[in-house]
Amino acid sequence: MVFTSSIPARTSVARRAGRSGTPRWVLVGTEVLVPIVLLALWWVASANSTNAFFPPLQLILERLVQLVQTPAFLVDVGSSVGNLLLSFVLASVIGVLLGAALGLVRPLAWFVEPTIHFFRAIPPVALVPIFVSLIGFGNETRILSITLAALFPVLISTMDGIRGTEPTLAMVSRVYRIGSFDRLVSVTLPAASPRILSGMQVSLITAFVVMIASEMLGSSTGLGAATLLAQQSFAIADMWVGILVLGVIGYATTAVFTLFRRRVLRWYLASQQQEKNA
Question: Residue 132: in which H helix or E strand, if any?
Fold first, then answer.
């Protein structure tokens, strides 16, 4: 039994949302059209460029096609994406578990929270040189630094979400004599899921930034390292290719997570829409 909130009929809510808000096809079309327009403006603005550091977009795209056909470039892309996804999953799982424990056991939180907020205040990128000095330049160093940097947003949002759960839900679960574990899984975590997923979204952005920084510091693989090497070697077209691909990866991962978040929180979004239309 899951006590989240009263979930209205999805079809009626969808109809009201379609009548009261902007049509969905307009939003999707705008999101697709804006990057195309920006690329078109970039193409026109750089068409006759003679600046060595700002080559024409046509040259950059031609170089992108050439690099995609090389195994080394594909290895760099795979390494970056793999480290990003693995670290994000680890940070999310550890953050939710530890945040749930600290949110439910107040005495434990009193001892641990000051340490958490101390390390949270340190800029995530600043942690990378520390791990490199202690562990070395291996891939495990990059995964550890990304995971730790991405951990705090999930951890803190989980703690706040559990503590902000409505007391009515706890009272109802006690009336139905739901056990502690079932109450956590079926009541507390679903009620805190909006805040948890918001923290995970911030965590994904943090993981992406630290991924690039960790690859640029002493690494020989990954898009960050390839982009930095291209810049230092004055291979400007290759540098722009790396920047473009990193932008595409960042946009794609954020878009996929947004779809996942909407899917998980469809009950919450529907209830919010019902309150607006009430």
Answer: helix 127-135
How far apart are alpha carbons 25 and 228 in whole angstroms?
Answer: 39
- Confirm whether pTM is higher than 0.70: yes
Q: Cα separation of 132 and 145, whole Å? A: 9
**CA–CA dist 89, 123 (Å, integer):** 21
In whole angstroms, give the CA distance from residue 159 to residue 194: 12
* Residue partners of 188: CB distance under 8 A and separation at least 6: 100, 104, 162, 165, 169, 170
Tell me the two tokens of residue 224. 């960050």
* Cβ–Cβ < 8 Å for 96, 158: yes
Burial environment of residue 121 by CB neighbours within 10 A (0 to 12, 13 to 18, 19 or more): exposed
Residues with Cβ within 8 Å of 184's Cβ and at least 6 positions away in sequence, in order, are 100, 104
> How many angstroms separate the CA atoms of 181 and 184, rounded?
5
* Cα angle 18-24-25, degrees, rounded to a multiple of 5: 130
Per the listing, tokens 């107040």 go with 106
* Token couple for 152: 């705090």
pLDDT band of residue 158 (cuts 50, 70, 90) is: very high
pLDDT tens, 218-244? 667 889 999 999 998 999 999 999 999
Query: What count of other Cβ atoms lies within 10 Å of the Cβ of residue 162?
Result: 22
Q: How far apart are CA 209 and CA 223, in angstroms?
A: 12
* DSSP-H helix ranges across 46-126: 57-68, 71-104, 106-120
Phi and psi torsions of 222, nearest 5°: 105, 155
- Among 218, 112, 103, smallest CA distance to 154 is for 103
